Amino acid sequence: EVQLVESGGGSVQAGGSLRLSCGASGYTFSGYSMAWFRQGPGKEREGVAAIARDGNTNYADSVKGRFTISKDNAKGTLYLQMNSLKPDDTAMYYCAADAPRVGRFGGSWDNQYEWTYWGQGTQVTVSS
Length: 128
Fold this sequence. Notes:
Layout: E1 3-7, E2 10-13, E3 18-25, E4 34-39, E5 46-51, E6 57-59, E7 67-72, E8 77-82, E9 91-97, E10 117-118, E11 122-127
Parallel strand pairs: 2-11
Antiparallel strand pairs: 1-3, 3-8, 4-5, 4-9, 5-6, 7-8, 9-10, 9-11
């Protein structure tokens, strides 16, 4: 069974940093694309960043230059380094895996319905 478990969330002041982690088990980690989504209060779930099998990355415009997605295939862990955090970054952050239609096959990485597996989320709260 594929399991994704997020960690690293918490409360931070605006301008601060956090690093989220997503530990994966139950499958060959390197064989899946991975992504981070988030859902803030009263908002739809939105794509934050994604990383393909080959390491190619995509970012939402709102986080470009501030967030970095990376992975460690040996550890089976996905990361999201979040710098210069803003109150608008406050959300539940979710790890997702496997989006077979994305890229060459017409799917959009920031469409949550493209992704197969999900963690239960970790809360990030940014105060002004």
